[in-house]
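Hi support team,

I've been running sequence recovery on a batch of backbones for a student project. Most finish fine, but this one hangs at about 90% for roughly twenty minutes before it completes. I'm not sure whether the input is malformed or the queue is just slow. I've pasted the structure tokens below so you can try to reproduce it. Let me know if you need the job ID as well.

Thanks,
M.K.
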């Protein structure tokens, strides 16, 4: 036992005992039940893993491998029983990384052979920004950080530089500083598959002239080479490809060049009864005309009405075609509002975008139609314009409607981003999480999941919080309180559909670096397939705001039952070296 000293007002010193973590009474009782003469041998250990930890299919040989792995990781302790585990060693095993609440080591285990529209995809918004949406710097650093965390969709806003001979990435119409497109592309190439081998999608917001679009086509092709998936067909996709077939590939998604769409004859021509081609005015012509009007006026002004050589048209069309061929997933700006585009041809696959506000407005009256649309198509939901501080929204707004690309500002940390990070800890952290079956299936009468429907409770998660350890190893003695050890408490709950969402709180344990709570909680859930376990630890402060002591979010669908060591993360989502909670999970 060691002591910690805290000086108070330079007058006197307070001393506190710093004890070793004590084995909780429940753990002692379990050890008694699964050991003999103070030793848990491999047979006892195997039985414990099956009966308490819920590893029903674990063989004796696999249990032996688990025990050997633990012993190999703790050779430096020199106290290990050669034929089994003592009570102290068993307690250390329960607190070890091997006894994690999710699969360890992480591995991809979802079916990855379904179309992309069947997955939630880890998606960034304005991925180049280091801070707020108005005045922060643009940089490759947040792009690299996002990819290294497993983000699979990177968004770049392309604008001409001041000389109009190169492409800058920046938030247009703001004071954000630019970064060169080529630097962003190189950063993506070098970091795309560090965290995951599954495809990276680059969504491009295009504000370029045809000449610069041609330059983009050249840059992208040269940077990514054979890893780039290119469009080879004039016709729309009937169905998106699957993640398995796109491993270590890069996909470009943006709107097709306006010039190409304007000059495409297939949408504007038809054959009359006599077999002669005649031009038919499209009902969409005013919209398309308005979109390219500024560019047309500019060309007339610069040429002062001079004759324009047919070769110039050919060059522009050629440039547009090269740019178009980069686009493997075409983004579409649907006409007529959400009600109109929800009824588009479902025999073809589309990718659409809408902001969180528009989704919220549409959801009450069109919730099931949105779910149905997202069974085949891709939907990207992005933050509303008012979030100039780069804050984020509740991602369940999109997920509960089957939206695949719920785009987040990865540079802004807090509870919303913690939920996003928690969702994508599923499936080995590969950045693609298979949507629950209820979002993909249709009933006998072609009905789909109703996000606002009332559902019965499917399961109840019972949680016992035993204790926490590791803060004394990862923090200075005065980090939380200058005059005494910390006063920790835990907030724990469920994030999911509204009826499942709840948060509860433990008692405050005063002056203790290794708090013991021994408190139990229950959380009934109707849609556990979409739920996340939320955990936060705070340090109580009488006079000021409570201090942050760690957090994590875990997908309920992959949460292991039994007694588990739950590692905590810092405010940004990086895992602490030593801080963890010892919890017991039971599903009923």
């Amino acid at each position: 036992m060691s002591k910690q000293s805290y000086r108070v007002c330079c007058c006197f010193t307070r001393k506190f005992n710093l004890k070793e973590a004590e084995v909780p009474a429940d753990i002692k009782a379990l050890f008694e039940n699964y050991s003999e003469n103070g030793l848990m041998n491999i047979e006892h250990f195997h039985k414990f893993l099956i009966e308490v930890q819920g590893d029903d299919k674990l063989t004796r040989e696999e249990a032996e491998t688990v025990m050997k792995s633990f012993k190999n990781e703790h050779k430096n302790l020199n106290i290990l029983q050669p034929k089994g585990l003592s009570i102290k060693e068993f307690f250390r095993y329960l607190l070890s990384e091997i006894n994690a609440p999710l699969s360890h080591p992480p591995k991809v285990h979802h079916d990855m052979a379904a179309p992309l529209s069947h997955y939630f995809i880890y998606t960034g918004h304005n991925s180049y920004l280091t801070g707020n949406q108005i005045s922060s710097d643009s940089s490759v650093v947040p792009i690299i950080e996002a990819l290294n965390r497993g983000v699979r969709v990177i968004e770049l806003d392309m604008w001409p530089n001041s000389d109009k001979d190169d492409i800058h990435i920046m938030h247009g119409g703001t004071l954000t500083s630019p970064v060169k497109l080529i630097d962003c592309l190189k950063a993506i190439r070098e970091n795309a598959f560090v965290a995951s081998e599954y495809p990276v999608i680059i969504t491009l917001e295009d504000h370029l002239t045809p000449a610069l679009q041609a330059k983009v086509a050249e840059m992208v092709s040269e940077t990514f080479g054979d890893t780039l998936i290119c469009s080879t067909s004039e016709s729309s996709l009937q169905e998106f490809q699957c993640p398995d077939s796109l491993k270590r590939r890069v996909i470009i998604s943006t709107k097709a060049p306006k010039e190409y769409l304007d000059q495409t004859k297939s949408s504007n021509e038809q054959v009359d009864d006599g077999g002669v081609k005649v031009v038919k005015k499209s009902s969409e012509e005013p919209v398309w005309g308005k979109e390219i009007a500024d560019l047309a006026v500019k060309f007339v002004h610069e040429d002062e009405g001079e004759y324009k050589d047919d070769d110039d048209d050919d060059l522009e069309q050629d440039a547009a075609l090269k740019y178009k061929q980069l686009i493997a997933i075409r983004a579409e700006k649907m006409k007529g509002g959400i009600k109109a585009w929800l009824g588009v041809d479902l025999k073809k696959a589309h990718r659409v975008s809408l902001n969180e506000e528009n989704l919220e407005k549409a959801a009450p009256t069109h919730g099931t139609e949105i779910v149905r649309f997202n069974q085949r198509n891709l939907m990207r939901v992005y933050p509303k314009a008012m979030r100039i501080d780069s804050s984020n929204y509740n991602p369940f707004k999109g997920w509960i409607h089957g939206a695949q690309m719920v785009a987040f500002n990865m540079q802004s940390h807090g509870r919303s981003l913690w939920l996003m990070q928690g969702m994508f800890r599923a499936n080995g952290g590969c950045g693609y999480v298979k949507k629950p079956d209820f979002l993909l299936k249709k009933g006998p009468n072609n009905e789909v999941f109703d996000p606002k429907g009332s559902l019965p409770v499917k399961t109840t998660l019972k949680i016992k919080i035993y204790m926490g350890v590791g803060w004394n190893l990862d923090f200075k003695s005065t980090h939380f309180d200058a005059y005494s050890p910390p006063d920790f408490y835990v907030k724990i709950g469920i994030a999911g559909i509204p009826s499942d969402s709840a948060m509860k709180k433990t008692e405050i344990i005063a002056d203790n670096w290794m708090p013991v709570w021994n408190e139990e909680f229950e959380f009934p859930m109707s849609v556990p397939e979409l739920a996340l376990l939320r955990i936060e630890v705070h340090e109580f402060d009488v006079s000021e705001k409570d201090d942050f002591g760690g957090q994590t979010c875990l997908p309920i669908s992959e949460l292991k039952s039994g007694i588990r060591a739950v590692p905590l993360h810092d405010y940004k989502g990086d895992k602490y070296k030593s801080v963890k909670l010892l919890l017991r999970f039971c599903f009923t």
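--
Follow-up from support: It reproduced on our side and the slowdown came from queue contention, not your input. DSSP finds 15 helices and 25 strands in the chain. No action needed from you.
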